[in-house]
Amino acid sequence: MNIAIWIVIALVIFVLPAVSLTSGGSRAPGRQELEKYAHTVGLPLTDTVAGPVVARIRRRQRGMMIGGIVAIVAAALAAMFIDGAETLGPLVVGIAGTGAGFGGAWALAAYRPEPTSDRPVIARVRSVTLADYLMPGERFALIATPAALALGALAGTALLWQLPAEVRGGRVLLGIAGSAFALLTWAAAIFAMRRVLAAPARSGSDLELAWDDAERAFGLRQVNDLVTTLICASFLVWLIAIGYSLTSTGFYRADITTAYVVTGLSLLIFGGLSLLVAFGPIRDSLGKARQGYEQRQLWPHGVSAR
Amino acid sequence: MTTLLIDPHAAYPPFEQLRRQLIEQIVSGHLFEGTKLPSVRRLAADLALAPNTVARAYRELEAEGYLITQGRNGTIVAPRTHDNANTSEEIGHLTANFVNELRRRGLGSQAILKAVHLALAEQR
Description:
The complex is a heterodimer of chains A (about 300) and B (about 120).
Chain A: H1 3-18, H2 31-41, H3 47-83, H4 89-110, E1 121-124, H5 136-160, H6 165-168, H7 171-198, H8 206-248, H9 251-254, H10 256-286, H11 293-298
Chain B: E1 3-6, H1 14-27, H2 40-47, H3 51-63, E2 67-69, E3 75-77, H4 82-104, H5 109-123
């Protein structure tokens, strides 16, 4: 498929919907759109805080837009250089989502307020951790990722090694490259999340600070979700490598037993690993517990609407 | 209260506002033992203060036994010793007696606060 089509798909699926509220940070949302957004966040939006809140949303969405576009361009160039965008085109779609997530986190982490203020300012009196923003299932996915990737790489190598050298070709390297890329993305995500947690939150009221928490939770969650998706995609790379090895050379007809065993084991192992990593985030996102989680953690007695 | 408020137009300088609020939250139990405080840089940026101001407040509170600095692990609220607990209880008791006495004489909250401010200013 033409690379232009993949770019359009990446924009339409990942980048544009995620930044639609402010058109990528280029405009302030209308009152109705804002109220709808406030309803999903679960916080009141008074006239006093509307200005700073809109500025925060625009800043994050601008970061997402820039991150998404940079990722699309980089991935498209890489795909064209590597194989003329014949088979690596879908890479653009996956990378676009990750770029948008990292772009949003970068916008949150890079924010530096004025060193002085002529109005009263407030700050939270205790330090915050990832546990204040991400639910246990989401955090488990993050912690389990390196072990899951290592297990996946070991299992994938062992399974491909059951096939003759001419059948497996260079696909072990392809699988390991996918796992290594996922591991690098995970490390970058951990770094980005720490920076987001350490970024200042200049606020004039409890409500404004609660909105800052909500925006921060959104940015962190997006990075976490996209990293989880990428980890699962790296397991898919192993499955494709194994499946392609079995079918492209007709090996599945030559040695039916080995082909069945390798297929069954690879589905079991990579399905299990995907479940291990994705179960927590999926479970947390399906229930209503994720909505307002950071408010319950950081504002156990509620937020005053002033 | 789970937040600190710094008002640039308040009667006290930001350092004193920060110090007093931290003590108040520790003594009242809102900030309990072992709670990790924000890093100096983060709190300074949040409150639009110079990092030195926050660092000085942390240092003073550490010297007074309210906080403990654990190197790279940051600053945490110190355990309340028996003496500390007794002192804060005693202070609370004395303050309540003082406020009750002034109220009995017909003073309102603002007048009581003004009297305290005046007395503190005179002792400086």
